[in-house]
């Protein structure tokens, strides 16, 4: 503020030590950029001079007065076709954009000749796509057969529509018709319809029940909910993160819940939109987790609330997390369309349903041992970035009817020696057929790294707002100025 008044009065501006350091740093950066460009220009001129010397045209420097000017365009020579020029520009643009995307080669091995951003062209005729995709699936089933469990389970998927506002009541009503001992799990389908609505209250969404055949029965349904924003677990900076299955496992242990009585432990997923000047963007939110069971859960849930924050470890069951998005980046990169046909990597599953059922059949997981299966997201809040340049190009100018947001496949089940052997078959299948490590997330727990840094003084931000020598950093925050950030899901604030 003082410098602004001095400038308006025509007096010299007085800089603080901090401002002088900023000015010096900016000047040094500008000088370095100028020097770099000058060096590049001089190198180009020297290269041209050497070329002239090799042609017997003299070795004078391009920058010298005796240098011959560079050759000009000969109007008598025909120009390259405009189509070729545009094609070259388009190829260069694809290469430049493609460098922004991760091809997941640390998770899977697509082979030396595979190109994430330049897959083979797709079939446009649906009459050709269907049999082609069926042939690819048959080849994958044949390659998977030697790894299947001796008593491989049969998995059926029952999907139903609801709305964001009515989903819990509709899920409970549907599960009342199933035997939990025959149910693998229930989960929100990771798709979003009705994109004219920003929130999901009135929007159509879908849920899916994965179950064994002949699962019809009449069962009561009890549920308990855990909010990621709550302080359920005692953690400190640097401790391993807490997963949704950890807090669900704490309830399972406290209630003595057997998998035969559990319908599922789905994460509560939402997809919400935000309007901007250039359109609407979408973000995913995992608000918490549910436990749905035939046995009562209310007493155990209240005990956990009274004892929170809890000291807990891994859940009392095995949790497998499969990286579907690493596969989707190749075989289904568009968030608004079907899998690619032909598939760039036809040995990989083309849908997350195929990946889920393949795991259950190879490991041999029985429905009576399963606490839950689901296809969902990991982060509490995350955007929906394009998975490859192919998806980026296909999404331009489109007005989609739905968005695919699937990221991971989660399977939670009671462990046994048979399943340990089954996971060995799954690892062999990954290595020898899929050429991938899709289970790399299973044992990965990131350390909690959120720290609290008090904001600068409010008056200082007001002074900086009117200081012409400081870059505009936005208006001072008023609401929630001193709120502390979340340490991590279920861990409370820092």
Helix-strand layout with pairing:
Blueprint lengths: L1 H7 L8 H38 L27 H17 L27 H19 L11 E8 L3 H9 L7 E6 L2 E2 L11 E8 L10 E6 L16 H12 L6 E3 L2 E10 L2 E15 L4 H10 L10 E6 H8 L20 H12 L6 E7 L4 E3 L5 H7 L7 E2 L3 E6 L3 H18 L23 H8 L29
Antiparallel strand pairs: 1-4, 2-4, 3-12, 5-8, 6-8, 7-8, 8-11, 9-13, 10-13
Helix pairs in contact: 6-7
Total number of domains:
2
Rg from alpha-carbon coordinates: 30 Å
Low-confidence spans: 1-13, 59-68
- Count the E strands: 13
Number of helices: 12
Structural class: alpha+beta
What is the rounded distance between the termini? 35 Å
Shape: globular
Mean pLDDT: 85
Largest sheet report? 5 strands, antiparallel
Listing every helix as H and every strand as E from the N terminus to the C terminus, the arrangement reads: HHHHEHEEEEHEEEHEHHEEHEEHH
Strand content: 15-25%
Instruction: Kindly state the percentage of residues in helix.
Output: 25-40%
């Amino acid at each position: 503020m003082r410098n602004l008044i001095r400038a308006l009065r025509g007096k010299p501006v007085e800089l603080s030590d901090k401002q002088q350091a900023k000015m010096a740093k900016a000047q040094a950066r500008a000088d370095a950029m100028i020097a770099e460009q000058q060096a590049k220009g001089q190198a180009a001129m020297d290269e041209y001079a050497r070329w002239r010397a090799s042609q017997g045209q003299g070795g004078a420097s391009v920058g010298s007065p005796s240098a011959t000017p560079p050759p000009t365009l000969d109007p008598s020579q025909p120009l390259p076709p405009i189509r070729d020029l545009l094609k070259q520009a388009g190829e260069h643009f694809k290469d430049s954009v493609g460098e922004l995307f991760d091809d997941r080669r640390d998770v899977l091995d697509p082979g030396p000749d595979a190109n994430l951003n330049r897959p083979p062209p797709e079939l446009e005729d649906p009459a050709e796509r269907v049999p082609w995709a069926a042939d690819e699936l048959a080849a994958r089933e044949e390659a998977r057969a030697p790894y299947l469990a001796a008593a491989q389970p049969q998995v059926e998927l029952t999907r139903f529509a609801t709305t964001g506002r009515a989903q819990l009541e509709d899920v409970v009503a549907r599960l009342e018709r199933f035997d939990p001992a025959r149910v693998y799990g229930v989960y929100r389908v990771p798709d979003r319809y009705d994109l004219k609505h920003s929130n999901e209250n009135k929007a159509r969404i879908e849920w899916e029940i994965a179950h064994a055949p002949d699962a019809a029965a009449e069962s009561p349904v009890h549920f308990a909910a855990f909010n990621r924003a709550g302080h359920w677990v005692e953690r400190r900076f640097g401790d391993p993160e807490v997963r949704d299955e950890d807090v669900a496992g704490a309830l399972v242990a406290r209630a003595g819940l057997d998998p035969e009585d559990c319908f599922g432990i789905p994460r509560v997923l939402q997809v919400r939109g935000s309007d901007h000047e250039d359109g609407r963007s979408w973000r995913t939110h995992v608000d918490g987790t549910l436990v749905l069971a035939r046995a009562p859960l209310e007493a155990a849930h209240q005990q956990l609330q009274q004892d929170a924050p809890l000291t807990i470890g891994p859940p009392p069951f095995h949790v497998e997390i499969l990286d579907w998005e690493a596969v989707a980046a190749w075989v289904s990169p568009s968030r608004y369309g079907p899998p690619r046909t032909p598939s760039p990597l036809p040995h990989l599953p083309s849908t997350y349903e195929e990946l889920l059922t393949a795991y259950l059949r190879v490991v041999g997981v029985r429905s009576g041992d399963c606490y839950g299966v689901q296809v969902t997201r990991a982060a509490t809040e995350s955007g929906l970035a394009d998975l490859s340049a192919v998806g980026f190009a296909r999404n331009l100018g489109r007005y989609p009817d739905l968005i695919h947001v699937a990221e991971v496949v989660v399977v939670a089940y009671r462990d046994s020696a048979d399943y340990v052997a089954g996971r060995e078959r799954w690892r062999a299948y990954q290595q020898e057929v899929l050429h991938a490590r899709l289970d790399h997330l299973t044992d990965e727990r990131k350390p909690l790294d959120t720290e609290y840094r008090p904001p600068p003084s409010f008056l200082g931000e007001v002074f900086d707002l009117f200081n012409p020598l400081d870059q505009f950093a936005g208006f001072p925050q008023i609401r929630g100025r001193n709120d502390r950030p979340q340490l991590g899901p279920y861990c409370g604030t820092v």
